[in-house]
Amino acid sequence: MQFKNQSVIVTGGSSGIGRATALEFSKRGANVIVSDINEAGGKETTELIKANGGKAIFVKTDVANWEEVQSLINTCLEKYGQLDHMINNAGIGQGLYFFDQITIEHWNKTIAVNQTGVFYCMKAALKVMKGQRRGNIINTASAAGIAAAPRMGAYAASKHAVVGMTKTAAHEFGKYGIRINAICPTVIETPMGDGYLANNDELKEKMRQSVPMKRFGKPEEVARTICWLCGEDASYLNGIALPIDGGSNA
Question: What are phi and psi of 82, to 5 degrees?
């Protein structure tokens, strides 16, 4: 119960890493706000938490909309009176394209959600946490945010930006007792990860074999890492981009 009486917002909480993270925080005693543009999935996560005896509410949010992000933060404060942990996990990934094949629409949507969405959530959360003089922010970047990601140009650009924002804000706000870190998973067994590799078993197996541990990650493994980063055992970690990749980055 390390997070008892603490509040956490998890964006992108309808499935995958977001759902696993919301459930893990709840198991450790946190009051959870599940946020997603996917209302059905988000409510399902909330009900799973409640069924396990936890406390959670769902707030439908498009993180690419500044007003909706502000409303999300305000709802957390109205419900729980504080914001202890902000998990900026919402993101999208749309197919594999060489750089010259990326459409303007694809580029703009990817940047809007994966980069601007994280900026909006950080901006709103930091205002609250600065006043509290404490708080944790975890941004979900990607292995594509710390290295090349062939045929994922827009996604890689957005995730490199997340790492840059994480490091810069960590430098600016550490003096207020706020820690800001990023996680950089490789392929995780989630709907997004499966979507990239759908109908391409050969590529999927090549990617699996490229991982030193010869398997993809599980969302629960990422969720436990996020909770560790938010806990006292990681109290002097700030501004890092932590690979969660079975050794691939090595």
Answer: -160, 165
